[in-house]
Amino acid sequence: MLCEDPESLANAAYFDHAAIIPLRPEALEAMCTLASDIGNPSSAHSVGRRARCHLEEARESIADNLGARPSEVIFVSSGTEADNLALKGMALQRAGQECHRLLLSAVEHHSVSDTAKWLSDYRHHYFGIDLDILPVDAEGRVLPDVVAERLNQDDVPLLLTVMAANNETGTVQPITELADLALSHDVPFHVDAVQAATHIPVDFSHPGITTMSVASQKIGGPTGVGVLLARRDAPLIPLFHGGGQERGLRPGTQNLLGIVGMAAALRSAIAQQHEETVRLVALRKRLIDGLHAAVDDVIINGPEEATCGADTPVLPGIVSATFPGCEGDALLMLLDGKDVSVSLGAACSAGVAQASEVLLAMGIPAQQARGTLRLSMGYTTTEEHIDTLLHALPQVVERARLAGLA
Q: What is the pTM for the complete model shown?
């Protein structure tokens, strides 16, 4: 039976906040309040005008919390769509100019890296576009000196895209320094802030950032909603056609309930950000110390110590841990049997475990990378959840090692 007992789910230790954060009560309340009074924001009658009012209030709230102007907030369906609109919209708009290189880091989310590969395959035939992959150091960080060197080449890049924080290791990138470089070279700069938003300060006001993506479900809002922040002068064209909504860049009737829920979730997350960061930093230390105590040879990938300041090297809610001699999917299933929900630091293709491209880019051997779990925490995580994981782990690792690496 696929449906689980709701009570058992409530008692589970959930370590997959990097995939989706449980809906915040504030978001649910905002959506329920609006549900009985919802219309099409594009309609001219009174119901439509009220809907438009709710939409614009949410837009203003989100803009205020992300350092943007309301006119720069474009509502979309997800962070993936936001990344696609940014990369394809700018690349296709700049087609035919003397721009042939798309600069991106080696550790981008697939919504960026796969879009870039598609652009390269599609546009290379017509325009000769090439992907210029930026390497990262052993902690998964892009080096500004390397970016400066690539920007100083004779051919001006089509655009630069680097995520604010990695979704597997939590490594935080030097976005302000990269934005300064992009601005000085007049190169559009897209920032995937899906994982970073609400966990660390995110500010779109830097003039060197052209576009930025944010997803509702990563901040405790409903799924099916995202935002692309786009400057008014961003060189963008729409991917869809058929309406004038969202500056004509994303036509279609807006998901008003989801948007209002996202705005409420973001307000709540930003209001609690400092207090929650302090709590998560302590929980992360408890988790990492416990991992070392439970499994002697566990390896923490990326920066090990998070801080409470804006200059933290890693998101406090993400720990990438490798267990040598284990397959990640075996660890996942064994922990799941003990009501502990985790995710892999590796992708699976056709049922065959493959090493994470992010970990490989950091110089981690493929066999080692295959035994990696991503343990991500959020506002629902407690010390008891961590203790549950740590109590189960030694036996789980032992059983996984007996199964061995395929």
A: 0.94
